[in-house]
Specification:
The chain is mostly helical and 315 residues long. The chain is built from 18 helices and no strands. It is 76% helix and 0% strand. InterPro entries: TPR-like_helical_dom_sf, TPR_rpt, Ycf3.
């Protein structure tokens, strides 16, 4: 459910412009050219190729903070969070007030499940650049994950005070309101997000969940299909559509989407819950109990889990 911005702010040193304008060829220019080549690979989504060029730059200057930072971005894109965190940390050691490095290290920590490290990065970013919305945004993401919804909402509001044009901030506020059952507040924030960025897929995914809460399966399917059109690779969208298909009586279409989602993330508790619901609807008591019991033991707060576990046990 969580949407997090990952701004790819690649850094380019002044030495590159010396190369472009004067064709000078000092060590500074060489490392700058390697950085530029790495950045070009990043833009081509060739992250391994980018890492190779950043390695070349660092071979010339082991204290090249921008190269560590950009290589950290490449590792993040490759979901190699440990190496990303290591590179961002090296960039910060060289440049202690490197705000972008704190932000992206925080995101990498967050994606790696190190919530309190991410929170520490958010706090440090806020202390360095209190006018930067990203520190509050990161704080909100972590507090949302920790279940401290009120603190998360306050953080997102602080982020909006710094920059009210970021659609993700409103989507995340809407997500929390959805968790809290405040449907009108969720819908209100989604309207703002859509006005700011109508191509943001998470808006329509969350709208589908709100429609499902109202037992409007047709509307839920319409919205989640729009989300998938905008971002076909997001596994959570298929998992949600799979759930809606189950409640629409389209059992095989439902389990196909759920299994597709599980292939992307076999530990997704929402997908495992949906698989349990599928087996309940299919009349398979042992498998329904197996999946629903596993989910309930790990997170009893996930909606529908307790209800369908009890129904399965009564079969």
């Amino acid at each position: 459910m969580i949407s997090s911005t990952r701004l790819l702010k690649l850094l380019l040193p002044a030495s590159v412009f010396c190369f472009l304008l004067l064709s000078c060829d000092s060590e500074e220019d060489k490392k700058g050219r390697f950085l530029l080549k790495g950045n070009n690979k990043m833009m081509e989504n060739d992250y391994e190729g980018a890492v190779e060029f950043y390695d070349e730059a660092l071979d010339l200057d082991e204290n090249f903070a921008d190269a560590y930072y950009n290589r950290g971005l490449a590792f993040s894109k490759m979901t190699d969070y440990q190496r990303a965190i290591s590179d961002f940390t090296k960039a910060i050691a060289i440049s202690p007030e490197f705000a972008d490095a704190y932000y992206h290290r925080g995101i990498a920590n967050f994606d790696n499940g190190a919530n309190y490290n991410a929170l520490s990065d958010a706090d440090r970013l806020i202390s360095i650049t209190p006018q930067d919305y990203r520190g509050y945004f990161l704080r909100g993401l972590v507090q949302e994950t920790l279940g401290d919804y009120e603190t998360a909402l306050q953080a997102f509001d602080q982020a909006i005070n710094q920059d009210s044009t970021i659609a993700d901030l409103y989507v995340n506020k809407a997500t929390i309101h959805y968790y809290q059952g405040s449907i009108e507040s969720a819908e209100s924030n989604l309207k703002i997000a859509e006005r700011l960025h109508p191509e943001e897929a998470n808006i329509y995914n969350l709208r589908s969940l709100l429609a499902f809460e109202k037992d409007s399966i047709t509307a839920a399917l319409k919205w989640v299909n729009k989300a998938i059109e905008l971002h076909a690779g997001q596994a959570y969208f298929y998992n949600n559509r799979g759930l809606y298909y189950l409640f629409d009586g389209q059992m095989e279409a439902g389990i196909e989407d759920i299994n597709f989602s599980l292939k992307q993330n076999s530990k997704n508790l929402f997908a495992l819950r949906n698989k349990g619901i599928y087996y309940y609807f299919s009349g398979d008591k042992p498998l329904a109990i197996k999946y629903l019991k596993e989910v309930y033991s790990k997170d009893p707060s996930i909606k529908l889990t307790k209800k369908y576990l009890e129904l399965a046990q009564e079969m």
